[in-house]
Amino acid sequence: MTKDGLMFLVMGFTGEKADAIKEQFIEAFNWMATQLTQVFQSKWVRYNQVSLEYKTRKVHVSCSARDMRN
């Protein structure tokens, strides 16, 4: 069942138990969204670190090769 399907079903229920289920679902969904965001951000940070390291080494190698020709 999808998130939307569950919400469509659950939103039709009333009462204290239904309210508790709705709150738990919202909390769980928000927790999951936070986890996914953190994973994405950490991978993006790592990509930027590796990219910067690659560019720095490329410049260093280019300078070294230029110095060897002189």
- First-to-last CA distance: 68 Å
Overall shape: it is rod-shaped
- Unreliable residue runs: none
Overall pLDDT = 83
Query: What class would the helix/strand composition place it in?
Result: mainly alpha
Radius of gyration: 25 Å
Whole-number total of structural domains: 1
Report the sheet with the most strands, covering strand number, pairing sense and barrel closure. Answer: none
Pfam families: Phage_pRha
InterPro entries: Phage_regulatory_Rha
Give a quick set of tags describing it.
70 residues, 2 helices
Q: Can you describe this structure in just a few lines?
A:
It holds the Pfam family Phage_pRha. By secondary structure, the chain is mostly helical. It contains two helices and no strands.
Q: What are the SSEs and their pairings?
A:
Layout: H1 3-10, H2 16-69
Describe this protein's structure.
By secondary structure, the chain is an all-alpha fold. It has one domain. 89% of the residues lie in helices and 0% in strands. It has two helices and no strands. The model has no long low-confidence stretch (mean pLDDT 83). InterPro entries: Phage_regulatory_Rha.
